[in-house]
Write a structure and sequence with these properties.
This protein has 13 helices and no strands. By secondary structure, the protein is mainly α.
């Protein structure tokens, strides 16, 4: 057995999934299913669905307000909803149609744009934070990055994701009359429409792949093996997303009775269920990536059956949490024995109080 784990990209590990043995594939497939349950994948997906809801509507407000300020609001909303109808059940589209159309045609679109951008960035960063916590549970590592380092990185990821979503919206919003006008201005006529009809779907697929890849690569507190734009887990997640959306739409069309059960709330309930399925697919793909790395390490003779041997990005916050937990245990022991508790000097409150006292002392002496 190898005693010292090699670097994530060391040649001792399989470079490609095709280099894994059949028994390795059988093991990692079985363990993916087991670990997804053990890591609380369903509960994590439910939590991410909550943060998705907090993110979706402010983001939609920002996008549609932008359209209301600079473009053909109602027409563009119809095209955006048409795109969503290709990947989501019909009732999901029905829920969004009225509020988005109202926002696009309102006279206060400029104010809504500013408010929507701020709210969507902060709300979406909460989703990225929650996704990061879920990824850390999947990789079985504590969050070691301090808040001042972690939050700016998550906001940067959020901005990138919002830009990608805006690109998707712009692609769909580009109608043929606009493209013909642009083509005429550039001297290419209807060629612009033809090229766009061919190129827009690959661009949309690339944007979705980039969103999944960015979430997988940047959120966990570990240094992963070499960066790949399309990891096996991302392929699995996108495939599951497409299959789940199609299957859910078929179920709604042929077997479900949401309208009779929930009435006016049916569309909202269906939208939440669809978001839940999206997050289940994302987390399951991440779990598969984790177990694929475990299979690479085990096949290379690395002791990874209990814990992946990957370096963490940072341990500052986790080290502080361990020290705090140790102090709490010691204070608890003193409390149990009836001893007086000492004043803690490692808390933020104590440090702030000390700093304020120091400032007041300086002011008093100067006075």
């Amino acid at each position: 057995m190898t005693t010292t784990p090699p670097p994530p990209d060391d040649a001792v590990k399989a470079s490609w999934p095709t280099q894994l043995r059949k028994q390795t594939w059988a093991y990692l497939t079985r363990r993916t299913l087991h670990e997804f349950v053990q890591d609380g994948g369903i509960d994590a997906a439910a939590g991410l669905t909550f943060f998705s809801v907090l993110s979706v509507f402010p983001a939609a407000l920002a996008i549609v307000s932008l359209i209301g300020v600079f473009g053909d609001g109602p027409g563009t909303v119809d095209r955006l909803l048409f795109l969503l109808n290709q990947v989501a059940p019909g009732p999901v589209v029905d829920v969004l149609r009225t509020p988005l159309t109202d926002i696009a045609t309102t006279s206060t679109a400029s104010f809504a744009l500013i408010a929507g951008v701020i709210a969507s960035l902060w709300s979406a960063s909460a989703y990225v934070s929650a996704f990061s916590r879920a990824m850390n549970r999947i990789y079985e590592v504590p969050e070691g990055r301090p808040y001042w380092k972690r939050k700016p990185a998550q906001l940067a990821v959020t901005v990138l994701l919002v830009i990608l979503i805006l690109i998707i919206a712009i692609i769909v919003a580009a109608s043929k009359p606009i493209l013909r006008s642009l083509g005429g201005a550039l001297g290419v006529g209807n060629t612009a429409v033809t090229v766009w009809d061919i190129a827009k779907w690959p661009v949309l697929v690339a944007a979705v792949i980039t969103i999944v890849t960015v979430l997988y690569a940047t959120t966990p507190n570990i240094h992963q093996p070499r960066f790949r734009w399309l990891s096996p887990g991302a392929i699995l997640a996108i495939s599951l997303l497409g299959a789940a959306s199609g299957g859910f739409a078929f179920y709604l069309a042929n077997f479900a009775s949401y309208n009779r059960t929930f009435g006016a709330l049916a569309g909202v309930i269906i939208f939440f269920v669809w978001l839940f399925l999206v997050n289940v697919a994302l987390l399951f793909g991440a779990e598969f990536n984790t177990e694929l790395e475990r299979g690479r390490e085990l096949q290379a003779g690395i002791r990874a059956e209990a814990q992946l041997q990957l370096p963490t990005r940072d341990t500052t916050a986790s080290d502080l949490a361990q020290r705090t937990a140790k102090v709490d245990e010691q204070l608890g022991a003193l409390l149990r024995d009836g001893e007086p508790l000492p004043h803690r000097t490692d808390t933020l409150t104590y440090r702030l109080r000390t700093a304020v006292r120091s400032v007041l002392e300086r002011i008093r002496h100067r006075g």
